[in-house]
Amino acid sequence: MRILILTKSIICEKQLQEQLQRLDHEVFVSSSLLISSQQFLLTRLIDYFQAIIFGETVMDKEVTKILSMIDQKDHLLIRKAETVLDKVDREVWKHKGIQGWVYCDSGIEAVREQLSTLEKEFVPTETENSFTREKGSLTMMQIKKTEGPKGLHLQVNSCAFGNTEKRLVDALINKKGQLCSREELCEILWNSKPTNSKLSQLSSLIKRIKGRFIKLGIHEEIIHTTWGKGYMLTNKFNDYFTDIDEEIEPIKELQQ
Fold first, then answer.
1. Does the keyword Protease apply (predicted)?
2. Is the pLDDT of residue 86 over 70?
3. What is the pTM of this model?
4. Among residues 83, 117, 222, 251, which is most buried (max CB within 10 A)?
């Protein structure tokens, strides 16, 4: 699960961040997204994350403001606090959109059980920004309808590629439109020379990736095959795909 922690003090979230990472979650921590001038970026990035945790250093009025800016039905919204709130205060926050709590002194077991309970109760709405389940894990496919010839914009890192498929796509992206040879791909994917078996696997991977594009409604050629040599991304790739890392990168303190 991808988790965004919003905080005024990144160091205060070190323990929680490490606990979540030990539980195999992808965690990003940011303080700059709370700055008013950066909140437009927050609204662009928010659908990349399934869960949002508001640190105890974030003021109540700031949490309330952000809750009003986002689609609450599509995210797990969690507040971190120093001490357990009374029932009345928890009900007030529940009405505002907060679905669960973690505490500064929570051990990893408590964090694990709280997240497990929330995940079981959480049912995202089936909108254009939605979570899909594949192979028992949660991934997010972010699709935004836009005007103009580019139509769909998909976040590469959050499409439901298998692990090897994603590494193959990343290798092609890194070539920046140039041919990536079969030898290079075999080395990258399997640390192997291009045997007949590996070349067959490579061909099957390419076919599966092309099939995924078709399921997404993309029928133009995204990956071009140069027979006997290798593969390359066509210019059409940039018409449909953007990488969320390009948007996250300028935020220096956003950490995994």
1. no
2. yes
3. 0.52
4. 222
Helix 108-121 crosses helix 14-22 at what angle (to 10 degrees)? 70
In the chain, what are the domains?
Answer: 2-126 (3.40.50.2300), 130-244 (1.10.10.10)
Residue 153 contacts residue 144 (beta carbons within 8 Å) = yes
Is the four-CA dihedral 23, 1, 169, 164 of positive or negative sign? positive
- How far apart (Å, rounded) are the C-alpha atoms in residues 179 and 233? 8
Which pLDDT value is given to residue 144?
36
Spell 49-82 as b/e; 16+ CB within 10 A means b. bbbbbbbbbbeeebbeebbeebebebbbbbbbbe
Per-residue pLDDT band for 38 (boundaries 50, 70, 90) equals low
**DSSP state letter for 254:** -
Which amino acid belongs to residue 147? E
d(CA 138, CA 143) in angstroms, rounded, equals 16
Sorted by sequence, the CB contacts under 8 Å of residue 189 that are 6+ apart come out as 164, 167, 168, 171, 202, 205
**Range scoring the smallest mean pLDDT among 136-150, 177-191, 226-240:** 136-150
CA angle 20–66–30, rounded 5-degree value: 40
Return d(Cα 248, Cα 250) in angstroms, integer.
6
What is the structure's pLDDT at 39? 64
Instruction: Please choose, from the candidates 115, 155, 166, the residue with its C-alpha nearest in 3D space to the C-alpha of residue 241.
Output: 155
Residue 182 to residue 139: CA distance in whole angstroms: 29
Count helices and strands (H / E) in the chain. Answer: 10, 12
Q: Is the pLDDT of residue 136 over 80?
A: no
Under 8 Å between Cβ of 140 and 47: yes
